[in-house]
Structures are given as structure tokens and as C-alpha cells.
Amino acid sequence: MDEKSFEHIAGRLRDKAVMQARRFGLDIADAEDIAQDVMLRMWQMRDALDRFRSPEALAMTIARRLVLNTFRRKHPESMDAVPANVASTEYGPLEDIEDKDNEEWLAARMGRLPETWHTILYMRQVEKCSSSEIAARLGIKETSVRTLLARARKILLEKMKERR
Fold first, then answer.
1. What is the pLDDT of residue 90?
2. What are the φ and ψ backbone dihedral angles of 111, each rounded to 5 degrees?
3. pLDDT of 99-143, one tens digit each?
4. pLDDT tens string 54-105
5. Is 28 left (phi over 0), alpha (psi -120 to 50) or beta?
6. pTM for this one?
7. 3-state SS string over the chain?
8. Cα 124 from chain centroid?
């Protein structure tokens, strides 16, 4: 990836890294530090980023691992303070393949949802829009947004349970 392409996606990657760190309970200063470290590592890897299907997913993985390291530094005597979704760091090639398989499976299932459900789920989960923002952008009632969002989540959850 050339410098110009990296600059084009850098802002989005940085924002996602901050959100990822904040999601695990870090304060804004620590989240900004994590984002800065993520961007530094991504910059160092910029020549190899074209090999990855999703630079966003790579940035999120780096951020998650840096968050774990932050928790370890702050709580060296106990990992009980680490949220369960951060605690698993035994990543290797097998886990990377499983993650990729899970992402592809979920993307395929989301692609099979009705278009409106998919759009609402995407706006809520990825763009972090509120129900009122989604309703305004799509021109539907806020109660409809909540209902459709619940249905989409329910369908995906049922499919996940079937998959296990």
C-alpha cells in the first residue's frame, strides 16, 4: 500500500482503534495512546497491508492485543480485571483461520438478511448510530428500527446456535 492510500484510510482506522479501546473500558487518554500505537504499527506494516483482506480487522486485532497489554501493566498480579472478550490471547495461525472463517460466515448470513434489516444492523453495529438517527436517515419510525434490529439479531443468533 502506498503512502497516499494509507493516508486515505488512516483516519478511519484511528477512529476504530479508539472505539475498540474505549469498548474495553479504557479512559480516553489510554484509548488515544492505544490508537496512536495501532497507527504506528500499521504505518510500519503499510507495505504489507495489501496482503490483508481487511486493514480494519487487522487494526482491531492490534488494538485488542494492546488493550490486553495495558491491563497487564496496570494489574500485573491479576488478570481478573480483564474483560472476558479480551482475555484470550492465544492467537496463532489456527485462530486466525477460525476468525477469518467466522467473519466470512457472518458476512454471508448478513448478506442473506432482508436489505432493510441488514442496513439497520450495519448502521447500529458498525456506524454506531442511535435508533433515532437510523429512523431519520431511513425515513421510518424509531419503533420500527428497534423491531427490525431485534429481528435481525434474533435471526443471526439462531443461525449461530445452529452452527455450533
1. 55
2. -65, -20
3. 788 888 888 888 888 888 888 888 888 888 888 998 888 889 999
4. 888 888 889 888 888 877 776 555 444 555 555 455 556 777 787 788 888 8
5. alpha
6. 0.45
7. CCHHHHHHHHHHHHHHHHHHHHHCCCCHHHHHHHHHHHHHHHHHCHHHHHHCCCHHHHHHHHHHHHHHHHHHHHCCCCCCCCCHHHHCCCCCHHHHHHHHHHHHHHHHHHHHCCHHHHHHHHHHHCCCCCHHHHHHHHCCCHHHHHHHHHHHHHHHHHHHHHHC
8. 12
CA distance 118 to 121: 5
Q: Rounded to whole angstroms, how far apart are CA atoms 76 and 84? A: 16
**CA distance linking residue 75 with residue 83, whole number of Å:** 13
Q: Give the sign of the dihedral formed by CA 83, CA 85, CA 86, CA 89.
A: positive
C-beta of residue 17 within 8 angstroms of C-beta of residue 63 = yes
